[in-house]
Design a protein that fits this description.
This protein has 255 residues and is α/β, with parallel strands linked by helices. The protein is built from eleven helices and seven strands. 42% of the residues lie in helices and 13% in strands. The strands form two sheets. Strands 3-2-1-4 form a four-stranded parallel β-sheet, with helices on both faces. Strands 5-6-7 form a three-stranded mixed β-sheet, covered by helices on one side. The longest helix is centred in the middle third of the chain and has 19 residues. The relative contact order is 0.14.
Length: 255
Amino acid sequence: MTLQQFFTQHPKAALAFSGGSDSAYLLWAGRTFGQDVRPYYVSTPFQPAWEREDAQRLARELGVPLTVVELDVLACPEVAANPANRCYHCKKALFSALWQQVRADGFSLLLDGTNASDDAQDRPGMRALSELEVRSPLRECGVTKAQLRALSREAGLFTWDKPAYACLATRIPTGTPITAPDLARVEGGEDALFALGFTDFRIRLRGDAALLQLPQDQMDRAVAQHGALLEALSPHFSQVFLDLNPRQKEEFHGQ
């Protein structure tokens, strides 16, 4: 089945829209094929402000109204406790809230941007999607990450080369309770690194300290600019450490 065939069979759908490359291309495809695909962005403390801004920008460029659903996901004890299956509980809470909104808006089909390269065994959140009957057209139609990036570039979407991004909760070690102040510290630190020109990195919280994980091609610059790095991150962390194991690009969303 192709995406065009999928949307021909399902001409009206709500889309869980993150502003990332996957859901961005899915929204473009649905609208290009002339169907009523409406994007919904779920705003939680796990998303940095720039993610919401990217989602709003793409919706504007495609001329589609974006509905923002606010959710205090930390109010869910199973999420805030940060167990090994936190992603399952988070997705369950997020998509349950989303279903409530989209049904009220007259939609009976809810989609997400999981693609054919995503490994279900590595993403416990997929079980929640299955239980809540959320459809994943990219996965069902066999569209891989590499393919959708190429297709997104052809379509002129600014998200075509956007690095894979995991929510801020993944920066906190499993078993360590998640708090709003810790999420804000990580977001502030990552914003500071973006401002210095670093990309596709992660800051891992280690108590009051930060562990930086950078791609291989940015390691030397981090060492050369260690003074600027420390100055930028000192408002957020007591110490800063550099992981000497390079971060691999295009890691799955849970990383």
